[in-house]
Amino acid sequence: MLSRARRDNRNVKRALVAMSGGVDSAAAAALMLDQGYDCVGATMKLIAAGGSKCCSLDDINDARMAAWKLGIPHYVLNYTEDFTRFVIDPFIAAYENGETPNPCIECNRHLKFRLLLRRARELEAEVLVTGHYARIGNARPAGSVTTEAAGSPEERAGRRLLLKGIDLKKDQSYVLYTMSQEELAFTRFPLGEMTKAEVRTLAEKRGLANAGKRESQDICFVPDGDYGAFMEAYTGKRYAPGDITNEQGGILGRHRGLIRYTLGQRRGIGVACNEPFYVTAKNRETNTLVLGPESSLYSKNLTANRINLIACPSIPRPIRLKVKTRYLQNERWALVEQTGPDTVHVEFEEAQRAITPGQAAVFYDGDIVVGGGTITSVCLNQRT
């Protein structure tokens, strides 16, 4: 798999570029070529043909054509069994447990920055490259509140930092919080200093056919966005309907299975009310969906587990940081306290809407990702 440049000059560094078929990964490959890297494109096949929007034949062909245009080899790597084990099965289990998972985080955690990184090393690549909008650095700005927690000056100097991308509308640092120091050291995010508009302009100048390709906003392995139907088809189960009630227990109608609803949902519930009602709770024991006013969605406190800290090895005392609990959300000020080796408690200064178990809580010190974890519970008695 060594390219001609690699064979002719053993001093040229090699980069394995994760190519999804989109414009971002193709532009990332182009930028690494400009930096003098010998690039190899790799597309991960995650789902059987015809089963999803991700790794479709069209996407694989788009990635292959982009690689051909850039003059680099391209390979398709089969990770379907791993994707099922680490992403789809936990996704289904989370919904069945009443949670709302983020499968992109688990894909990054297990597939891109563990298995694909391992393959990059097997291919003697020096770096793994993706088209994420994020940055990797070492320097902490003056006044960083996590400086003390990061250890001695020598320890701080050796610690890799995950930073927000320059284009805040495209920043993807939220879904990358699980990365380890080793993974950050081996990874490059060449788009982190660019805006989406600049990336498309670069792709157009390089003659890449996917320069104007639209982005998908849906769960990649659910073809039509109906994850309830996907789960029933995948598992062979029928998720039982049940009562929809108000917060006082009055019956308002029937739901189509609790897995089809998430906290804060208003549309598609199938109940006509004189005032706006939202999903405020899901009772698995009674198979009941509870609706209430928007005011019932607000809470100040959450707990999270499976934490991963990047900017410091631990949080030795409660620290005032900004926290976001959904990908498409602005972070808010909160007090973050590490309560155990794998747990944190977060108390927001202002009540937040629809904090949802299964989603990630990610902590920020300015542009620095301090770390994050999976939300396990919301302290309902603290709602305002």
Provide structural commentary.
The protein folds into three domains: 12-133 and 170-205, HUPs (Rossmann fold), CATH 3.40.50.620; 239-295, Roll (SH3 type barrels); 297-382, Translation factors (Elongation Factor Tu (Ef-tu), domain 3), CATH 2.40.30.10. Residues 1-7 have low confidence and may be disordered. The chain has helices at residues 4-8, 23-34, 57-70, 80-96, 103-122, 153-157, 181-186, 196-205, 227-235; strands at residues 14-18, 38-45, 74-78, 127-129, 134-137, 161-164, 187-188, 242-246, 251-255, 278-283, 288-292, 298-309, 319-324, 332-340, 343-353, 360-365, 368-378. Helix content is 26%, strand content 28%. The protein is α/β, with parallel strands linked by helices and 384 residues long. The strands form four sheets. It has a six-stranded antiparallel beta barrel with strand order 12-15-14-13-16-17. Strands 3-2-1-4-7 form a five-stranded parallel beta sheet, with helices on both faces. Strands 9-8-11-10 form a four-stranded mixed beta sheet, with no helix packed on it. It has nine helices and 17 strands. A hairpin with a 2-residue loop joins strand 16 (360-365) and strand 17.
